[in-house]
Amino acid sequence: MATFLAGNIPESCHPKVRELAAYWLSIHPARGLPGRQHFEPMDIPALLSHIYLVDVCPETRGFTFRLMGTALAKLFERDYTGLPFEGAYDSGKRSHSYRDMTEMLASRQPRWRKAPGYFMKDRDHLTLERVNLPLARDGQTVDIILGMILAHSKSGALI
After folding, report:
1. Which CATH superfamily is domain 2-152 in?
2. Smallest Cα–Cα separation from 112: which of 24, 39, 26, 9?
3. pLDDT per residue as tens digits for the range 40-86
4. What is the pTM of this model?
5. Which residues, in sequence order, are CB contacts of 128 under 8 Å at separation 6+?
6. Would you list the domain boundaries of the chain?
7. Taking a C-beta distance cutoff of 8 angstroms, is the pair 87, 80 a contact?
8. Which of 148, 156, 150, 151 is nearest to 44 (CA)?
9. Does the pLDDT value for residue 3 go beyond 60?
């Protein structure tokens, strides 16, 4: 697992991840973090099916899926839009995803991870690549996570 600071995107990431991160950097204000008000989905139409938005409740460190792209709903065989994070992952707060999101709340820095899809039944042959980008309406307090997940086959091709 690796994290990246603004402008320091891992070379090993997929071009779609690089494109989303570059977009996030392009909407980044001079001070603070970009917020949902800066994010215009139609600026990145080719990426939307792999994107998700997660609402953050900083007081409880709770997460709820606001939106899940169609490619992700197909990959996970369920659309998690409107559901709490714990409803999406059997391991819930013990998962790498939860840890990455809570660490991002503190650091206010993007998180990137590429690892086997071991938690997916009958899909352990896949590698999942994920990027989480913080959004903050007030520029400071992360209230939404803009994320992307890509599934790679053993050959490296996108699924």
Report:
1. PAS domain (3.30.450.20)
2. 9
3. 999 999 999 999 999 998 777 789 999 999 999 998 888 999 999 87
4. 0.89
5. 113, 114, 115, 116, 117, 120, 149, 150, 151, 152
6. 2-152
7. yes
8. 148
9. no
